[in-house]
Hints:
Number of strands: 5
Order of helices and strands: EHEHEHHEHEHHHH
Largest sheet: 5 strands, parallel
Shape: elongated
Structural class: alpha/beta
Distance between the termini: 38 Å
Strand order of the largest sheet: 2-1-3-4-5
Strand content: 5-15%
Radius of gyration: 24 Å
Helix content: 40-55%
Amino acid sequence: MKLQKKEKLLIVDDSRFQRVVFREMLAEKFEILEAVDGKECLEIIKKNGNNIDIVLLDLVMPNMDGFEVLRKRQTIKEFESIPVIALTTSNEISFQTEAFELGANDFIMKPVDARINNTLESVRHLKEVLEEQNSWKLKSQIDEMTHLFNKITTEKMVTSVLSEFSQKKQALIVVDIDNFKSVNDILGHKVGDHIICVVAGSSYA
């Protein structure tokens, strides 16, 4: 039986004790990475961002605090899609407000102890929300009728390839249906849509 791969959690906290507490509580469910401050957090994200599922981020740290990490997160492609739960010992509303304004997905107080189950539930909820967002994002890129990339997405992909490989030759195939206007005029648009779907290689409902 194949074991389910653990999700990867990055704990960012200057307190070794707090990192140990989190590691003991979460090691059964997550593969744990640790960072002692914001700078180390960003270094880890840049190296492993595609494999990190969630970040627990202390807001008050030396060198680079959690607020600065959240600011930089908005400019780092590998980081912007990773959910972040902000951590702090302060109960000031201003801390929570600023963290949320900078893009934190959730907020919990330290010490965590009994609240860890709520944290895990937040993680699961965040993953569900992100999966739903990704689903809608994909739908916005696909033509509903043919299930192929739509015009806007295709133009972006072509532009991206031409920009990235500007010194290399590229090829683009354009498929046209002869006398297609006659099909719509004589047989109707429903038949025309069916023909487009057949050409596109997708099923027609």
